[in-house]
Specification:
Largest sheet: none
Structural class: mainly alpha
Organism: Bos taurus (Bovine)
Strand content: under 5%
Shape: globular
Protein name: Extra spindle pole bodies homolog 1 (S. cerevisiae)
Length: 102
Amino acid sequence: MRSFRGVNFGTLLSSPKETEELLPDLKEFLTKLPSCRSDSERRQTCDAILRACNQQLAVKLACPRHLGSLLELAELACEGYLMSTPQRPPLYLERILFIFLR
């Protein structure tokens, strides 16, 4: 399983290939993370991915395939974030999702 500690998702997601490769890694991370440390690590990782996706979408990408991968990754990260957050998601998460839907 890939480790996400210290990963700069902003740089990583600027590449369409890296974005596509991150999808299965994130799926595995969300399903196989040990439960003893899962919530905080899952929340932090998904938060960082959502912010990086938001940053990349603000660039106005020309490649539809990259855009699709970013949206799919953001959806998966959002699901992971919500799984790890017992309380209502913060307003910034709603703002990020609004930007995706625009």
